[in-house]
Structures are given as structure tokens and as C-alpha cells.
Design a protein that fits this description.
Length: 278
């Protein structure tokens, strides 16, 4: 299997949209501080981009990024998070990791400030090409559910982080306890994997994030349920009033994701895990 074959199909549309100027550098759902007041409202120009910038801001606040650090963004998308760090900090060693050469080509269009080092590497999140104890911060924003194994990624993060370092992530999964008991699990898995796969562990059944972190020598120090704060973005990903997939697998997956999210069955979480020492 080639690297490109493991890239989620929806990135074809995101890459095309970026080249046409309709998609920005952030490639995640975004965060809405006033989520309750946004339900059912049409999307205003620039609103989605502001929500995406807000999620980036929250992730970097959680990470407590400081001058002089080595920061790795795993599943770096089009480079928005590292671009923000590059613009706001000095003497940084910044590394973006992705399995898609097309996304990295977009990242490489960024020119770093002269006081920072910025590199982009084609690699698998479950086999990071980095030495042990070489990073101060690892970011993983809305990408982990695509990885072959959350467990292996956590182990890699634990290996690569220096003592005192931190892993900051956002992740989503389907909570079986919040599912409609009449909804067949196989149908949910098929719909999500069809449009958003690879998604090996839809239900996060291997273990909880905390259990995986402990096995990797990491300790949870902060977490938040952002399910409600990320849900309004489906107003952007799916046109208003569209509730039939028309036989399109991508739209079928998007509708399934939205419905799960609106019912609270799709959970979206923010977390920070620290490595002892330092």
C-alpha cells in the first residue's frame, strides 16, 4: 500500500479547494464559543475560518508553546498551526509530519521567519522518524482517528517527547453509550469509513485516551469535551436544508457525521498529556 492510498478521500476536495482559494490552511471543524446560539443559523462569510482560527488558538494555549522549543505537528494538514507558531515565536525548531506528499507541498510554500527552523517530513504517525526525547511539544489536531493505531501513536509520542514535554490533541470518536440502540454498528462504521476512512477504531474501543497515555508514560493534565463547540461547523460542510445524500458516498458520510454529532453520539475532545520530569 502506498502512502497516498491511506490519505482520507475528503482531502482531494480540500486540496482542490485550497488551490482555488475556497479553503484555508486550517483543515478541521473549528471551535465555536457561542455554539448554542449558532444552531440553525446560516453560515456568514468568514465565520468558519474564524472558528478554525479559534480552535488553533485553543490548541496552542493548551500546549503552552514558548520561544526556543522543538514542536512537532503530527498530521499537520496544510501547516496552519506551525505557521501560527512561526509568526509568534522565536528560535523555534518546527516539524510538520504527514503521510500525504500533496499536503506537504502546500506546507512547503510557507516561508519561515529567519529566526526559526521549519521542516516538513513525509512519514507515518505510528513510526515517527525522530530520535527519543527530541521534542518539547507534540500537536495532533483532528488527525488521530485516521491513524492505524492510537495506541502506537501514543507510544511514539511518549518516546519522542522530552521529560517535561507535552502532547496536545483533539480527537473524535463515536460513543456506543450515546447511540440509538436500533442503529446497526456496522452501518455506522461503513458510512464513516466510506467518506472519512481510514478510521480503524470508530468507537475508541482499544482503550481510553488516559489508558493509552499511561502505557506511554504520559499523564493527562487537562481535557475538555468540545462536542457542542465543534458541531456548528456542519452548517459549512453540508449545505443548509440538504438531508439526502443522493447516492453520493462522500455526502452520505458527511450526513452521518453531522447526525451523530448533533445527537451527541460523536464525541469531540481536547486533551493535554505531560511526560514526567524536566
Amino acid at each position: 500500500m502506498s502512502v497516498t492510498e491511506r490519505v482520507p478521500a475528503y482531502f482531494d476536495h480540500l486540496i482542490d479547494g485550497f488551490r482555488r482559494g475556497t479553503v484555508g490552511r486550517s483543515v478541521h471543524l473549528g471551535h465555536w464559543d457561542d455554539a448554542a446560539g449558532r444552531a440553525g443559523e446560516p453560515m456568514r462569510p468568514g465565520e468558519f475560518e474564524r472558528a478554525q482560527a479559534r480552535l488553533d488558538e485553543i490548541m496552542l494555549e493548551m500546549a503552552d508553546v514558548r520561544d526556543g522549543q522543538a514542536v512537532v505537528d503530527v498530521g499537520c494538514g496544510f501547516g496552519a498551526s506551525l505557521q501560527r507558531i512561526d509568526e509568534g515565536h522565536r528560535h523555534m525548531r518546527l516539524l510538520g509530519v504527514n503521510i500525504d506528499a500533496r499536503q506537504l507541498a502546500i506546507c512547503r510554500e510557507l516561508v519561515p521567519h529567519r529566526h526559526n527552523a521549519l521542516r516538513w517530513v513525509l512519514a507515518d504517525a505510528c513510526a515517527l522518524p525522530l530520535g527519543g526525547a527530541s521534542a518539547d511539544r507534540i500537536l495532533c489536531i483532528e488527525a488521530m482517528f485516521h491513524f492505524a493505531s492510537r495506541r502506537t501513536f501514543f507510544l511514539e509520542a511518549g518516546r519522542v517527547l522530552r521529560p517535561g514535554g507535552a502532547l496536545v490533541l483533539s480527537d473524535m470518536f463515536v460513543a456506543p453509550s450515546a447511540m440509538n440502540p436500533d442503529a446497526p454498528r456496522a452501518a455506522v462504521e461503513a458510512a464513516l469509513r466510506e467518506g472519512y476512512g481510514p478510521w480503524p477504531d470508530v468507537w475508541c474501543e482499544d482503550a481510553t485516551h488516559e489508558q493509552l497515555a499511561r502505557a506511554a508514560g504520559l499523564r493527562r493534565v487537562w481535557s475538555a469535551d468540545a462536542t457542542a463547540n465543534t458541531c456548528p461547523s456542519h452548517r459549512f460542510t453540508i449545505p443548509r436544508g440538504l438531508d439526502d445524500d443522493g447516492g453520493d458516498p462522500g455526502l452520505r458520510a458527511a450526513l452521518a457525521l453531522r447526525r451523530l454529532h448533533e445527537r451527541g453520539a460523536l464525541r469531540y475532545v481536547y486533551m493535554r498529556f505531560d511526560k514526567a520530569g524536566g
